[in-house]
Specification:
Elements: H1 13-23, E1 29-34, H2 40-54, E2 58-63, H3 66-74, H4 84-87, E3 93-97, E4 102-105, E5 110-115, E6 127-133, H5 141-152, E7 156-161, H6 168-176, E8 182-187, H7 203-211, H8 216-224, H9 237-245, E9 249-250, E10 260-265, E11 271-280, E12 283-293, H10 297-311, E13 315-321, H11 335-341, E14 346-349, H12 355-366, E15 369-372, H13 377-385, E16 388-391, E17 396-401, H14 407-424, H15 426-439
Parallel strand pairs: 1-7, 1-8, 2-5, 2-6, 6-7, 9-15, 10-13, 12-15, 13-14
Antiparallel strand pairs: 3-4, 4-5, 10-11, 11-12, 16-17
């Protein structure tokens, strides 16, 4: 019995070139940016399924979380009312395990549908194909953990999702947009049609979204491939946009004639984040950003010393949050004491009475900030993603920032802003605290 690809899926024009890239050209790296409602998740799963029939191996389709993997792939129903799993030819499937979200094919290939938030359970499975679906929202650590298996097996890495500013997906896209070993797309609604040549989404559909209240920047991101849209509820969107427009994000290297300041946020299991900056007359130039985790205070002191050796400069002040003075039970001394023993003197910045005070301090200082975009890329990413959660049910923003990977980089800058203003602009800091008390959470 001969089973054709068309028995599983009907390829649209923009999908045919994708399948040709793998099956005819042998491309093994895919970056598939595509607008919403283009069917990119089903497309990604089906090309993986076809590959699994051609080469026996272990395959994984990962969404950001397990619940998303169940909703988007395992239980999804297409526009024809057919479940994705029911599209698979029964002659090719030897078993489906719903509890493990595992599909076994007649040739011995195994497909797992899972969440990248629990990628560690996949380590050691000898995977030969991994799809990172909604990669812009996924844990990028999964890529580093699974890459050795993919490389050893001469396998395939397939990234799919929609654009996000200062995001690991954008970094990947920028690095490989002209790489001949990668198949790279950023498809807008103007690039996709059905098999009869009709647009999948029309301008009328987009106008309906606008009338429904969808923000224009979000429309440009979700349907037209824009990387400039802001995250909903982000605290520093206007400040970052102004900095970009005014040329304050670009090439701003270390100046050997000026001293270096640092500001940190302490972490162990979470990230330990450090900003490096210099005062240039009326400007504050962020020359570098560093983060790591699960390292000792001695390790970070060595990082500070090594940076200084590289630059050949001198430090002025190391700003650190209040918890640097907390005494650790095992060591019997504070991290501030540990750093002092290694020759690094931290200046403690008092904890603000409210989180919003620190946010307003950063906003006040932002008009003076310049960023070296290459060195501070991860820090800028965190600032763009630092946001308050929106309560859809009640239509309000939370009073507190959402705690995520952006938190520590943003908090490190807040430490620097509060410390800097307390030394050089006490009246400005006092004013910002007064303003934040007046406005509370109404800051967008």
């Amino acid at each position: 019995m001969i089973i054709k690809l068309s028995d599983c899926i009907t390829l649209r024009p923009h999908q045919k070139v994708l399948f040709d890239a793998y099956f005819k050209k042998g491309i093994k790296n895919f970056i598939r940016l595509c607008h919403r409602r283009a069917g990119k998740s089903i497309e990604a799963f089906m090309i993986m399924f076809c590959a699994a029939m051609c080469r026996r191996g272990i395959y994984a389709h990962l969404l950001p979380t397990y619940s998303q993997s169940k909703r988007v792939i395992w239980d999804t129903v297409g526009e024809e009312g057919i479940k994705l799993l029911d599209r698979l030819p029964v002659q090719l499937v030897s078993g489906i395990n719903h509890s493990e979200q595992k599909i076994t094919l007649i040739n011995g290939s195994v497909i797992y549908v899972a969440g990248s938030d629990n990628y560690k359970r996949l380590i050691g499975m000898d995977i030969c194909w991994v799809t990172y679906d909604e990669f812009q929202n996924s844990n990028p650590s999964a890529v580093d953990a699974l890459r050795p298996m993919i490389r050893r097996n001469h396998g395939v890495s397939y990234y799919v999702g929609t654009p996000r500013a200062y995001n690991h997906f954008k970094t990947l896209y920028d690095e490989h947009i002209d790489d001949p070993e990668y198949f790279v797309t950023n498809l807008t609604i103007n690039d996709t049609v059905d098999n009869f040549g009709n647009p999948l989404l029309t301008e009328e559909d987009i106008e309906a979204e606008r009338r429904a209240g969808m923000d224009e920047s979000l429309i440009q991101q979700e349907y037209f491939g824009s990387f400039t849209a802001a995250l909903r509820g982000a605290y520093y969107t206007d400040q970052l946009n102004a900095a970009k427009k005014e040329g304050r994000i670009g090439h701003f290297p270390f100046n050997p004639m000026l001293p270096i300041y640092t500001s940190s946020d302490l972490g162990f299991s979470d990230d330990f984040a450090i900003w490096f900056f210099q005062r240039h007359e009326d400007r504050i130039v962020m020359i570098d950003y560093y983060e790591n985790r699960e390292k000792s205070m001695e390790f970070y002191c060595t990082v500070l010393k090594d940076k200084l050796k590289t630059w050949g400069g001198r430090y002025s002040t190391h700003f650190a949050p209040h918890d640097i003075e907390n005494r650790e039970l095992i060591a019997g001394k504070s991290r501030k004491d540990a750093a002092r023993e290694m020759g690094i003197l931290f200046r403690t910045v008092q904890r603000p009475a409210q989180k919003i005070h620190g946010i307003f301090a950063v906003r006040h200082l932002f008009k003076k900030l310049c960023f070296d975009e290459k060195k501070c890329y991860m820090g800028l990413k965190h600032l763009s993603e630092y946001h308050s959660e929106f309560d859809e049910k009640n239509g309000v923003y939370s009073m507190q920032p959402k705690r995520n990977t952006a938190t520590h980089g943003a908090d490190a800058l807040q430490t620097g802003a509060l410390g800097y203003l307390s030394v050089y602009d006490q009246e400005g800091l006092k004013k910002q605290i007064e303003i934040s008390n007046l406005f509370g959470s109404l800051i967008w």
